[in-house]
Task: inverse folding
């Protein structure tokens, strides 16, 4: 992988959240990463595409969506810097994607193939620990989002989103934010005026 020192430092800091890699181990990881630069509105992953990579966001904002047969779009995830994004089910089972991942801003992502991830986890125990912890965090966040959606009103969901991702609100359109929260734009406007 070719990348600037600051990009690699940021990625190393991210990995160091849950692991302690030696310089040599980190170099091995970096050798398995491919950098992709994407433009705003560019599609990173199409529906029905075989999913063989997961993506770490170095720069930018991406959105994962699911579109029903009747055309209704559902927002699955927003991903900003230091987040991972892919169609998890398709990635882990090496299946076709149900989701579309699109750039809402110019972006730079680090792509890690499924094969490389499995190889790295088998060779570097610290990295296996890192991905296990990241998976656990993802499961917890998904469960929290589900419970919040089931038990909280729209105002509470908005406040929790602002608390967890304070810069996200300024980076996405009101239309997408309202769709994510399951409210109309008018209702969202009442929240943002408060």
Result:
């Amino acid at each position: 992988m070719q990348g600037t020192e600051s990009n690699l430092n940021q990625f190393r800091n991210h990995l160091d959240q849950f692991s302690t890699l030696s310089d040599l181990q980190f170099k091995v990881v970096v050798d398995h990463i491919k950098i992709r630069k994407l433009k705003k509105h560019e599609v990173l992953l199409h529906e029905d595409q075989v999913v063989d990579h997961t993506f770490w966001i170095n720069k930018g904002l991406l959105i994962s969506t699911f579109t029903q047969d009747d055309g209704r779009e559902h927002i699955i995830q927003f991903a900003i810097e230091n987040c991972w994004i892919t169609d998890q089910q398709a990635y882990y089972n090496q299946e076709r994607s149900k989701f579309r991942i699109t750039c809402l801003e110019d972006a730079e992502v680090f792509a890690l193939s499924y094969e490389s991830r499995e190889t790295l986890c088998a060779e570097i125990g610290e990295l296996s620990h890192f991905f296990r912890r990241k998976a656990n965090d993802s499961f917890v966040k998904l469960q929290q989002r589900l419970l919040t959606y089931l038990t909280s009103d729209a105002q509470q969901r908005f406040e929790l989103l602002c608390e967890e991702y304070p810069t996200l609100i300024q980076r996405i359109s009101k239309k997408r934010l309202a769709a994510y929260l399951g409210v109309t734009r008018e209702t969202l406007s009442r929240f943002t005026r408060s």
Notes: The CA atoms of residues 16 and 160 lie 27 Å apart.
